[in-house]
């Protein structure tokens, strides 16, 4: 068709194969907004396995994601290959949706659930499903307790960094976490964790 852009002449399946090379959920979302055909190409990726980064944090979207949305995302073929998930600030989700999503994200290395209302139930699911987790952000997750954190750090042996700013967990818990994993970086750094090794509790 005269005046049609060359990329618009591509068959839908070929366009979808091109989009497979995009590993960022945010970039795919932007691509889907270009035109109807691109949107169809992105939708065809529901059966793709290459997506690695899922960022649906509040700052990126004008609407609130709910547990139903997380459930639908959990059915995508790429979930088991995701290495990074950000749910920062999504107050419309609960443990139910997070557990559904995380239980299939076995390759996860980075997780941001800061600013949500999750509880220890989500931490238990993360501990059971994410053996490769390296970084987790629990910023202002006021409903998690020391029990959940202990299970998480004890199970995720590759965990390198944990952000607990704004939680209601006592400092003694963080000392116990360092007993389990001495190299663990606990943020914020202002926490008074400079204690002698002899003071650490035996678990």
Automatic annotation (TrEMBL):
GO terms for cellular component: SCF ubiquitin ligase complex. SUPFAM superfamilies: F-box domain, RNI-like. Coiled coil: none annotated. Pfam families: DUF7885, F-box-like. It comes from Rubus argutus (Southern blackberry). GO terms for biological process: SCF-dependent proteasomal ubiquitin-dependent protein catabolic process. Gene3D superfamilies: 1.20.1280.50, Ribonuclease Inhibitor. This is F-box domain-containing protein. Residues 7-40 form the F-box domain. Residues 53-164 form the F-box/LRR-repeat protein 15-like leucin rich repeat domain.
């Amino acid at each position: 068709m005269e005046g049609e852009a060359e990329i618009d002449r591509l068959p839908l399946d070929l366009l979808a194969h091109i989009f497979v090379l995009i590993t960022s959920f945010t970039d795919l979302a932007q691509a889907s907004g270009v035109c109807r055909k691109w949107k169809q190409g992105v939708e065809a990726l529901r059966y793709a396995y290459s997506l690695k980064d899922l960022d649906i944090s509040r700052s990126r979207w004008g609407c609130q994601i709910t547990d139903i949305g997380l459930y639908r995302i959990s059915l995508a073929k790429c979930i088991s290959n995701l290495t990074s998930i950000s749910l920062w600030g999504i107050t419309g989700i609960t443990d139910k949706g997070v557990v559904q999503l995380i239980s299939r994200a076995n390759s996860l290395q980075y997780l941001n659930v800061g600013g949500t209302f999750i509880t220890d139930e989500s931490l238990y699911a993360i501990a059971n499903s994410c053996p490769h987790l390296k970084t987790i952000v629990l910023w202002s997750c006021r409903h998690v307790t020391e029990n959940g954190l202990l299970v998480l750090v004890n199970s995720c042996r590759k965990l390198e960094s944990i952000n607990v700013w704004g939680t209601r967990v006592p400092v003694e818990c963080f000392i116990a976490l360092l007993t389990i994993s001495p190299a663990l970086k606990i943020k914020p750094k202002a926490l008074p964790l400079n204690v002698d090794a002899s003071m650490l509790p035996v678990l």
